[in-house]
Amino acid sequence: MAVKNPGTEQEVVSDISEKITEPPLYKVLLHNDDYTTMDFVVDILITVFHKSQLEAEKIMLNVHKKGVGICGVYPYELAETKVETVTALAKNSGFPLKSTMEKA
Q1: Residue 56 lies in a domain
Q2: Whether the Cβ atoms of residue 64 and residue 30 lie closer than 8 Å to each other
Q3: CA-CA to 58 of 20 to 30 Å: which in 24, 40, 52, 64?
C-alpha cells in the first residue's frame, strides 16, 4: 500500500505548444535504359522494395513503357538508402539501372 507524504508531491505543469510534423516523403524512381534486363528490374523490386511478383511486374512494365516508374514513397533517409542499394546492386551485376528520388 502506497503512503502519501503531504508536501512531497509536486504538480507538473507542461505548456508544450510545439506541433509535431511528419517528415517529408520522397518518391523512389527507376529509370528505363536499353541494357538492364526486365528480370533484373523485377528482382530489384521484389528484394529491395518488397513488392509482390505481380506488383513488381506492373512497375517494371511501367518503367519500360513510360521511361520511369515509382517504386515507393519513403522518408528521406530510407529513400536515399534504397537508391544507393539499387545503384550498388545494378553496378555489381553490370547494369546501368538508374534510380533517383524526388520530393513527393
Answers
A1: yes
A2: no
A3: 24
The model's pLDDT over 32-70, given as tens digits with 9 standing for 90+, comes to 999 999 999 999 999 999 999 999 999 999 999 999 999
Here the CATH number for the domain that contains residue 90 is: 3.30.1390.10
Q: How far is CA 87 from the centre of its chain?
A: 14
Residue 25, phi then psi, degrees to nearest 5 = -105, 155
CA 35 to chain centre: 25
Contacts with 73 (C-beta within 8 Å, 6 or more apart), sequence order? 25, 26, 27, 28, 79, 104
Beta-carbon contacts of residue 36 (< 8 Å; ≥ 6 apart): 90, 95, 96, 97
DSSP-derived 3-state class of residue 1: coil
For 26-35, b/e burial (b = at least 16 CB within 10 A) is bbbbbebeee
